[in-house]
Amino acid sequence: MDRPDVDGLNAGYAALLLEQYLDNPGAVPEEWRDLFESEPEVLLRRQPGLARLLELATADGDGHAAPVVPAPAAPAPTTAVAAEDEELVGGVAAAMALVKAFRMVGHLAARLDPLGSEPPGDPALEPERLIPKLTPDLQARIPAKLLRLYVDGDTLADALPRLRETYTGTIAYEIEHISDHEERVWLRQAIESGRYRRQLSRDERVRLLRRLSQVEGMERYLRRSFLGQKQFSVEGLDVMVPMLDEAIELAATGGAHEVVLGMAHRGRLNVLAHVVGRPYETILREFEGERTIEAVVSSEEGGSGDVKYHLGAQGTRSTPSGDITITLVSNPSHLEAVDPIVEGRTRAEQTDRSSRQGYHDPSVALPVLIHGDASFPGQGIVAETLNLEALAGYSTGGTLHLIANNQVGFTTEPESGRSTRYASDLAKGFDIPIVHVNADDPEAALASIRLALAYRRRFGHDVVVDLVGYRRHGHNEQDEAAYTQPLLAAAIADHPTVREEFAARLVDDGDITQEQADDLAADVLTELRQAHEALKETFGTAEPPPRSDTHVPAATGDEVVTAVAADRLRALNEQLLRVPEGFTPNAKLIGQLERRRDALEQGGIDWGQAEALAFASLLVEGIPIRLTGQDTERGTFSHRHDVLHDANTGGTYAPLQHLDDAGAAFEIYNSPLSEYACVGFEYGYAAAAPEALVLWEAQFGDFVNGAQIIIDQFIAAGLSKWRESTRLTLLLPHGYEGNGPEHSSARLERFLQLAAQENLRIANCTTSGQYFHLLRRQALDATARPLVVMTPKGLLRLKQAGSTLDDLASGEFRPILDDPRPDRDRVERLVLCQGKVYYDIVGHEEHANASGVAVARLEQLYPFPTERTKALFAGYPNLREAVWAQEEPQNMGAWRAIRHRLEETKPEGVPLQYVGRPWRASPSEGYPTAHLREQDRIVRAALSV
Ligand SMILES: Cc1ncc(C[n+]2csc(CCOP(=O)(O)OP(=O)(O)O)c2C)c(N)n1
Questions:
Q1: Which residues touch 883 (CB under 8 Å, ≥6 apart)?
Q2: Is 372 touching ligand 1 by the criterion CB < 6 Å?
């Protein structure tokens, strides 16, 4: 291959070739390509201007030129042409800096605030300040292609206004923080090409105006008709509704059959009406008060119901691509708590659980989260949820986050609410693109959604749209904004509504007449008035409105068959010990797992084995299982090993995903180090997958209180508030083993305090067989309820806590285990306890001598087994005293929640005594010797020795 004649080169021709090369390297002759790529120094020596251009232009558009050219060693240019080239080179460098500035900080000059506050700007955006100055003449000589620009225009002079319009208009972008080069380049191209900012047709614009008229009309009508009732008006962010319309249509186009929506109070009623499709009449009925509407959960059933702006709803919308379900998830007041629930729900919708490993297809459902501008940066759950977005076990293929940014949180201004410039800044740390958009430019707002969803579809990641608007009224309709934001309130009062502004724009553009625009607004009010009048006519005479088709399920704990035939268990046990050809499990582990074969025949089935057999038996019965938690694949205490790791290759294998006859998925994932988001996620998953057994395991039970909001607001109260229940199962290691205040207690007392109206099941098993039956019952019981299990640590391997094949092949979960010792007539003292302390008591040297003492175990703490406890007491005819023994302090553990139950069930005249730690502020001792002393004292006191 000959080297091109560089010396005799015409600079213009070379520039042309270079331009062609940059556009498409394959388009230039091979020898030139080779020169540009491998011998730029030749070019540098002869054509310094061109080489510098090459250097700049082969940078990736970040303005950081990849140094394809070694440090310049070129002779100084002596001719006029060379001097001109030098100027061009300097110009290109300045132009690249300018382009970079628009991309990096253009948002600082963008007109994002509908109230017209001046953007701060940035000096880097001013071409006049660059050295050399980008004079108009120089701008006209710089080819746009060299700058890797995607806006139209052949030269910088053509492109600059478009660049400015693109980056500093009513949409602004923050994408340059994204670490993936391909994503960055794709986004630049998508943004600059303007393909998502297409001009709307006249019909589309009129439709948009009609929607804005409906949004505004409804808010106004409600405010006027129901003075002072809370509606948390969306006004100032009205365009949020058409943005959701756009997102739904695009999701449907992409093949989704569901959009799962999570949002707080702001604009929720409007979203219910216009996005979910709840009829005006129903919403008006709710405003008319309880005398016309039955609470979601009727009071005879003991349900509390919930305020109207917390209730979930579901609707179906038809789109050109087919019907799509919109699910608005129920949520509490606790801002952002719904975020992980939406993710979990979506993940469940996206997962086909009919195959052994499950199949996740993110195109099936789109999660949309609407955040407040104060809560997005303020609530830590947002960060925890964002951290789930790209994890194999949690991804939903990208969430559309919409920050409903009204520039105030209740009465608190951004200056007091966050340390960052933008409400959205947290998202930057997660490589998430951020689009800011002015809520008074509805067309730009729709464009931001189009770009966001195209990005999600292309890359499968989260995207944030920061919708910058204002709040036309106070925080709610009983609030006076002028008390605290007088200037803002005054500015807003003078500011036209977005409907008015958009109507004016359409009138100006000749799309409609003013009269037509006014008619659109009037029509909405007429429609609302008619719906309201029709409703009023039904007062007093009407049939009660149709009940929700969900109902609070009846009593829990239905009988189900939890025993599994011995032969089936043998077969499953063998399959669980199987690994593929060539797979080498850890040598130590092989021995441990092999012992499971002997345990089956000789007894000593430990916790891990019983759990694996329960799971395996359910999978072959077609029940899907999802198990997550910190280090759950192995198990914190190394007792589970559901996922094996090849000692040579590091590859993994989960036998539970390869059972011969399994007809359901076994999903197992180590979770990130989060409780709040992870428990919320599993709650959402379990709610959307009622047929599955969904389990979350705490590293130690102590940490579950990181998820307290999910426990209080969803798991415990969801049934009463929203008729929402799940079979979510929490495995919480609990037990006093001398590991200090933070590794002892799962705060059993908290769950017992929350338990009422059969909303929960709470258990603590003392044998692996009981655990086996409990898990199976939880999965198979037709009545779904959350289950909280206090799980063991030391008992995981304790011989006495092990079970036999017969224990699993027969029987059932027993809420109470009586003392197995035979001589009941001699018993004068009955000690009732729960959990691990049982083994401390019966294992104590004094137990053998205490023949007048029986020790029974309460295995199900809630619902309390009243009849069985009565029968237990009745089984000891000579009883003189009853004791509740616990290792927890008196203000913790089960005592305070079940004392009255014991009082009710014990024989009259038999006193009930408490034995355990005294009232304590901290759950347990920090020193192992102090722990041992206290355990010994408790056991002796229980045995009365
Ligand atoms: C976890 C939590 N803490 C406090 C509150 C009380 N509260 C209700 S609304 C609100 C302000 C929310 O501001 P923002 O997120 O900007 O939403 P906006 O109401 O402005 O739409 C606060 C503090 C709450 N609901 N949840």
A1: 829, 830, 831, 832, 912, 913, 914, 915, 942, 944
A2: yes
CA–centroid distance, 787 to ligand 1, in Å, is 31
What tokens appear for 502 in the block?
Answer: 């958009």
From the CB of 570, is ligand 1 less than 6 Å away?
Answer: no
Instruction: Report the C-alpha gap between 505 and 807 in whole angstroms.
Output: 77
The Cα–Cα gap between 761 and 726 comes to 11
CB atoms within 10 A of CB 602: 11
Q: What DSSP string describes 443-485?
A: HHHHHHHHHHHHHHHHH---EEEEEE---SS-SSTT--GGGT-
Which residues is 155 bridged to in the sheet?
Answer: 143
Structure token pair of residue 693: 């057994």
- The structure tokens listed for 463 are 């995207």
Q: Which residues contact 199 (CB under 8 A, 6 or more apart)?
A: none
Q: Is the CB of 335 under 6 A from ligand 1?
A: yes
Does any ligand 1 atom lie closer than 6 A to the CB of residue 266? Answer: yes
Strand partners, 854: 830
Q: Determine the angle formed by the axes of helices 442-459 and 181-193, rounding to 10 degrees.
A: 150
Closest to 726 (Cα-Cα) out of 776, 656, 795, 781: 781
Identify the sign of the CA torsion 245, 250, 255, 258: negative
Structure tokens at 736: 């006093």
E strand or H helix at 929, and its extent? helix 928-943
Indicate the top mutation candidate among 268, 335, 369, 401 to test ligand 1's pocket, ranked by most ligand atoms within 8 A of CB.
Answer: 335
703-740 pLDDT, tens per residue?
999 999 999 999 999 999 999 999 999 999 999 999 99
772: its two tokens: 């086996």
pTM of the model: 0.92
Residue 367 zone, left/alpha/beta (φ > 0; ψ -120 to 50; rest): beta
232 alpha carbon to ligand 1 midpoint, in Å?
11
Q: Where are the alpha helices (DSSP H) in 562-700?
A: 566-576, 587-602, 607-620, 676-688
For 336: left if phi > 0, alpha if psi spans -120 to 50, otherwise beta; the answer is left
The model's pLDDT over 300-353, given as tens digits with 9 standing for 90+, comes to: 557 888 888 888 999 999 999 999 999 999 999 999 999 999 999 999 999 999
For residue 161, count CB atoms less than 10 angstroms from its CB and return exposed for 0-12, middle for 13-18, buried for 19 or more.
Answer: exposed
Residue 408 CA to ligand 1 center (angstroms) comes to 10
For 689, the 3-state DSSP assignment is: coil
Q: What's the whole-number average pLDDT of the chain? A: 91
Distance 677 CA to ligand 1 centre (A): 19
CA dihedral 801, 805, 807, 812 (to 10 degrees): 120
Is the CB of residue 815 below 6 angstroms from any atom belonging to ligand 1? Answer: no
Cis bond leading into 132, ω under 30°?
yes
Q: Which residues contact 55 (CB under 8 A, 6 or more apart)?
A: 40, 65, 67, 68, 69
Pairing of strands 322-328, 258-262: parallel
For residue range 368-414, list pLDDT tens digits in order.
999 999 999 999 999 999 999 999 999 999 999 999 999 999 999 99
For the CA atoms of 627, 632, 637, 639, the dihedral, rounded to the nearest 10 degrees, stands at 60
Q: Is ligand 1 within 6 A of the CB of residue 334?
A: yes
